[in-house]
Design brief:
single chain, binds flavin-adenine dinucleotide, alpha+beta, 4 helices, five-stranded mixed β-sheet, 138 residues, Alpha-Beta Plaits, globular
């Protein structure tokens, strides 16, 4: 059954593009072989990942990823059936907030952290899912 998993975690090191690229490099072939799609968003020390694919396959992959020492404090936000993939073109699309064009950063900041100068990933499920929808537009 087509499903998705959405989780947040804390990186054990500050997230830069090179860390995201390393993870994407080791994910790409594995995810393609498993017909898994999704995104990995990094900002500061926070990761947000969406895994889309067969329910059992993404559950096993999530449990495998959860053991990775590059992150900790994993919070599972959503694991449920979906009718269609949001990121069908990507075995894993990487985003780093700081690499987004300034106007997109500002748009995200205004929408999700209106009272702050700094961007914080939403931690509440509903806002997080809305934020993921935002990423499909980028
Ligand atoms: P190995 O490559 O043998 O690695 C074993 C362990 O060594 C890892 O769990 C990790 O703790 C550590 N390690 C591996 N490479 C490095 C490195 N470059 N620097 C430091 N430590 C390292 N994999 C996927 O297949 N699909 C994904 O969608 C995916 N998403 C991920 C998201 C996050 C936030 C993180 C942190 C990792 C993700 N990974 C993903 C990577 C995954 O955890 C495994 O490292 C990868 O699947 C390779 O598995 P392996 O059994 O061959 O492990």
């Amino acid at each position: 059954m087509l499903s998705h998993i959405v989780y947040l975690s804390d990186s054990t090191n500050f997230i830069n593009w090179s860390l995201i690229k390393d993870i994407l490099l080791c994910s790409d072939e594995n995810n393609k072989n498993k017909n898994v799609t999704g995104i990995l968003f990094g900002h500061g020390i926070n990761f947000l990942q969406v895994l889309e694919g067969d329910k059992i396959i993404i559950k096993n992959l999530y449990e495998h990823i959860a053991k990775d020492e590059r992150h900790e404090n994993i919070i599972l936000l959503d694991f449920c059936p979906i009718t269609e993939r949001k990121f069908s073109g990507w075995s894993m699309k990487g985003f780093n907030f700081n690499n987004l064009p300034k106007e997109q950063q500002q748009h995200i900041l205004n929408k999700y952290c209106p009272a702050s100068e700094y961007f914080y990933l939403p931690t509440e499920k509903k806002s997080c899912l809305a934020f993921i929808d935002e990423l499909t537009q980028l």
